[in-house]
Amino acid sequence: MTPTVKLKQIALILGDVAILYISLVLALFLRYHGLSKEVWDVHFWPFTVVFSIWLATFYIGGLYDLRTLKNDLYFARTFLSLVIINGIIATLLFYFISAFGISPKANLFAVVAIFGLIAYLWRTIYNNILSAGSPPNKILMIGYNQTVEEAVNQIQQNPQLGYEVNFWMKEGLQDKELDHLAQIILDNKINIIVIPAHIKKSSKAARLIYKNLVLGIEVMNLSDLYEKVFKKLPLAELEEVWFLENIAKSHQIYEFFKKPIEIFLAIVVGIILLPIATIIAIFIALTSPGPIIYTQTRSGESEKGFKIFKFRTMRVNAEKDGPQWSAGKHDERVTPIGALLRRTHLDELPQLLNIIGGELSFVGPRPERPEFVKQLKKDVPYFELRLLVRPGITGWAQINYKYGASVEDAYEKLQYDMYYLKNRSLALDFLVLLRTVKYLFASHK
To answer: Is residue 99 part of a domain?
Structure first.
């Protein structure tokens, strides 16, 4: 994440925080015709906890992702839905859980209403600011291929990202305008030149660009720009040297802390969810003959096979005709309780045992079956690199791309997996876990 993106997101969060407390002040002032210290003290901490949850909900819902910050129907629908969800969460906390010792009926409704109105106005203005005017990053794009076209289209459709393609030499090194590079940079106020991998190797291009470095331009690889705007990596632009420089680097501190933290969390979560798991086991036993827990061989770190645990969602001998990519929407092999478990992802609860055993992680590339790994290593370039780390129950690819069931889907998801491998950290893992909450409700297998 670039400093500019961070600043934009921080400004957005600070604005939301300010509006939350302004809404509380206005609600209390209107309710009590004034605001005494006693009234403020009673409401401040309970609402601070609620506001923290609301901000997390906004993050999970994507309201701090710059790619979604434009005034369209999707944004309006998402914002309204999240405000309603936050109101429901607050109602549960105040009235059903009684966690705070107060039941602010009128006050809560007023806070939700006032915040919804002011925040939507603030967000609309902020979205306009992000999209209006001239973006600070003005790009000269050299060359043409599918990856370049995807990046240009994404930039043109999302000015809030802060990029603008001011000039495009589609013919690459054969472009007649290349001889006037300095003039083009000055006339179009270019500060970034983006070059695909095949052009970067050209000594002619290197000499031309080198001569113009005095103009204060930044030279960026197409893969780096693509990563910034899509949050994934373009496999078509990457070569073995790139992987040696970016994927093979050590993450010793991260790996040292990650495994013990995850094992501890898996034990805690397992204990908390044990009653739910017990109920699920009983329903499976009563509705379908066969084992409650289903095991299947998956390829783990360094392609080492392990048995993954899941609640059984299919009838016995469901794969008598051989391994299949996935169950379809109306797959007759899936049991009625299994369909519900798949939609809610509760069938994956037993995988906490795999985490405790060190075979699986909370966050990582999805573990595939050895039969599919063998095929995908042949059909998808660099697929074997996702086996460098422990696979995960959830991951960057899972929350950014629909459930895949083909070689084409595997290629697309691998681009997200490569982004995760390059940028993996405890902070990114935490953000993936937060976003997974939205994924659980928005998708199914």
So the answer is: yes
| Three-state secondary structure call for residue 118 | helix
Which amino acid belongs to residue 39? Answer: V
**Model confidence pLDDT, tens digit, residues 46-82:** 999 999 999 999 998 889 988 788 888 888 988 999 9
Question: Cα angle at 31 between 44 and 82, to 5 degrees?
Answer: 60
Total domain count, the chain = 3
Q: Is 10 part of a structural domain of the chain?
A: yes
State phi, psi for 138 to the nearest 5 degrees: -105, 120
**H-type alpha helices, 248-363:** 252-287, 336-344, 352-356
Please indicate, yes or no, whether residues 282 and 416 belong to a single structural domain of this protein: yes
C-alpha span between 215 and 200 (Å, rounded)? 19
What are the tens digits of pLDDT across the range 120-151? Answer: 999 999 988 887 777 889 999 999 999 999 99
The answer to whether 258 touches 216, Cβ cutoff 8 Å, is no
CB atoms within 10 A of CB 424: 20
Largest pairwise CA distance in the chain: 77
Q: Which of 131, 149, 170 is the last residue of a domain?
A: 131
User: What range does the domain containing 303 cover?
Assistant: 252-442
Pairing, β 305-311 against β 361-363: unpaired
Could you identify the residue written with the tokens 């103009």? 215
End-to-end CA distance of the chain: 30
Report the mean per-residue pLDDT for the chain.
88
Residues 151 and 223: their CA atoms lie apart, in Å, by 10
Is residue 236 in a domain?
no
The answer to whether 115 and 90 are in contact (CB under 8 A) is: no
Classify 362 as helix, strand or coil.
strand
